[in-house]
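hey so i finally got around to running both of the ones u sent me last week. sorry it took forever, my laptop kept dying halfway thru and i had to restart like 3 times lol. anyway pasting them below in the order u listed, first the sequence line then the structure token line for each. didnt double check formatting much so if smth looks off just lmk and ill redo it

first one:
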Amino acid sequence: MTEATIDVSPEAVAKLKALKAEERDPELKLRVFVTGGGCAGFQYGFTFDDEAAEDDAVIQVEGEQFVIDALSYQYLQGSVVHYEEGLQGARFSIENQSAVTTCGCGASFAI
């Protein structure tokens, strides 16, 4: 059995590169996580971090690091981290194949 992975879109990689340059912080990583809440039960979260914890999954794409804690990883397997700009503004988002339902804005989901 092959373990599902988490992918990162080229747009998300490019945005992280741009943010690192803007902040002048070469150690900056994008932390992707799942918390309880939102209208569908779970919600996605994104924050910047300079360090990865020992039990974090580290996804490296083009030299950029995306970190996911062990608890969140199970909910994000098979997902894609995106960055999008549109009428609702600019944001990182998740395309989660495991989500059974999502809310209208796409920020929360249920499994």
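and the second one:
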Amino acid sequence: MTPLDLPFDADEMLAGLKPWIECESPTYDAAAVNRMMDIAAYEMAALGAQIERIPGRMGFGGSVRARFPHPDMGRTPGILIAGHMDTVHPIGTLEKLPFRREGDICFGPGLMDMKGGNYISLEAIRQLIRAGLQTPLPVTVLFTPDEEVGTPSTRDLIEAEAARNTYVLVPEPGHEDGGVTIGRYAIARFNLRTVGQPSHAGARLEDGKSAIAAMARKIIEIEDMTGPDCTFSVGVIHAGQWVNCVSSSCEAEALSMAKKQEDLDDGIARMLALQGVANGVEFQVTRGVTRPVWRPDQPGTLKIFEVAREIAKELGFEMTGRSQGGGSDGNFTGAMGIPTLDSLGVLGSGLHTLNEHIQVSSLTERARLMAGLLMRLR
């Protein structure tokens, strides 16, 4: 039996995925993320993996590292499957986006990004074990808790584990055409703050300096800096408590993305140059987490992409590979020069929305792709 002949069953995989999706795990709820890690750790332990629970830090949940039985484990660099278990959906999203199937579509928070991809990776390992097939290289799985906010607490853990391996496979959502990611754009995050002067908004409006109004003007200025080489967007804003008070502080978060590192560096410089005081209000900018450029022309990545293309042909489709935006932890491993293949997960649409869903038929195809890679990479 070859990996492509393994008896993957979409209905069984959906049944296995249901408790994963119904265990909501938003990034900022460490206890919720840890509950999800418990489920994954149990399933991997049942497959015979050596499980390590790594405590969380910086207020985030913990990580799970699983090393699967292999005669060369610990002696030969192998394959790292890297995924995150946190989602952008807050607790209670299941009430609006319940786990449900409608024909070839299945809905659920975090199903596409990226619990579906994580699950099919374990299913690929499960079926290989059941078939008595031994992967040429040792396999390690690392699930982390904070990718959706830029991986501030586990970047060094991911990079250290990647350095112990020859290849990195990232089951983030696949492209619409079934293609994969062989490079990613650079991303920088910024924390923004305006500091104004409080006053009573009804009785002494003229005495105040509104931090909210100043931030609103800065948001327009920031987003107007977007060009073909570097984009800017503000996605979070917090301010105010009483409508009858002129707000003295306002905080926001911005994101910048560029295809080239030098363009991102220029964008960072432009953002930092916006700091200063105007009309009695101070504007502060501090750097947040950054994802480096992962170039799409690395020989090692192109090598494993060719292996994936051959498997795709046997599965009946032509696989494409491209660089794209939307950061992942593949940015880190790819930037290290470690052969990395990203977007190996399930196909679907609506990630990060209340319409997040996957194509059920992609479960078996992507599981076969993962199993094929685990058996052919050497």
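quick thing i noticed on the 2nd:
DSSP finds ten helices and 19 strands in the chain.
anyway thats it, ttyl
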